[in-house]
User: Fold Methyltransferase C1347.09 from Apiospora phragmitis.
Amino acid sequence: MAEVTELNRSHFNNEASNYDSKFQKTIQQLTEALQERLDFIGVDWVANEEDGDDQGYGGTTPSREVRLLDYACGTGLMSRALAPYTTQCVGVDISENMVGVYNATAQNQGLSDDEMHAVVGDVTVPDDPRPAALSAPHFFDFDVAVLGLGFHHFVDPPLAARRLVERLRPGGVLLILDFVTHEPFVKHEEQDQHRGHGHGHDDKEKVFHNAAHTVTHHGFSESQMKGIFESAGAGRKFAFQEMGSGVVFTMGRARRE
Ligand SMILES: C[S@@+](CC[C@H](N)C(=O)[O-])C[C@H]1O[C@@H](n2cnc3c(N)ncnc32)[C@H](O)[C@@H]1O
Assistant:
């Protein structure tokens, strides 16, 4: 395992039990932002039964499946935000403890493994394009692959995008939510040395800075993302949308029809 991947595994194993409470506000904001962008994401969603049948996401035809791959799923932000519009969410993450929280939350919500379940896995290993843990048929042919706030942690983001597109059905959608290009975060302690002790940090700032050693990229520009989507085979209908707080939503469709 690459050193930075191991750093991520260990960092997020430690963070897992507190992640949802630490990021409660951010999780709520991103959930709302995702649900406001169902049309932008462009999947032929199934309707949310609670919303009734008037949403235009394809009705409640029980025979139709909409399958979502949530890569670097963590505790399940992306899955839970989009589950009302899908029939199955499959999570994959490098951290056993994040996967544990994902599955415990799904079970607490009364969901079956068929509806929402995560496993430990890594598609970003250069010489292992089909990891054994992710080789079963239900890890392929997804309608949408989502990657929420994980892209900036990868050694080779273009490789990760390619590997996710390989798991889409023809015409399936790749959605990446990450940061726009920004100044590098420095470690919390280093920041204290520069500023002098006694300066407060808000909790969110502290958590991001303490995760600085797990970050490989300081956000992504639109042109970088466009190049990555094109070389991954998902440049068709490429779109990039920025949220006020520097988070971007990038989508593109897999080339194969
Ligand atoms: C900031 S968290 C985001 C989690 C979740 N998607 C969310 O939006 O809340 C980043 C996640 O990426 C995972 N991760 C880092 N490198 C990974 C890799 N190579 N393969 C799979 N997951 C990885 C971490 O374990 C962590 O759960």
In short: Residues 40 and 156 are 26 Å apart (CA to CA). The longest strand covers residues 168-179. Residues 3-22 form the longest helix (20 residues).
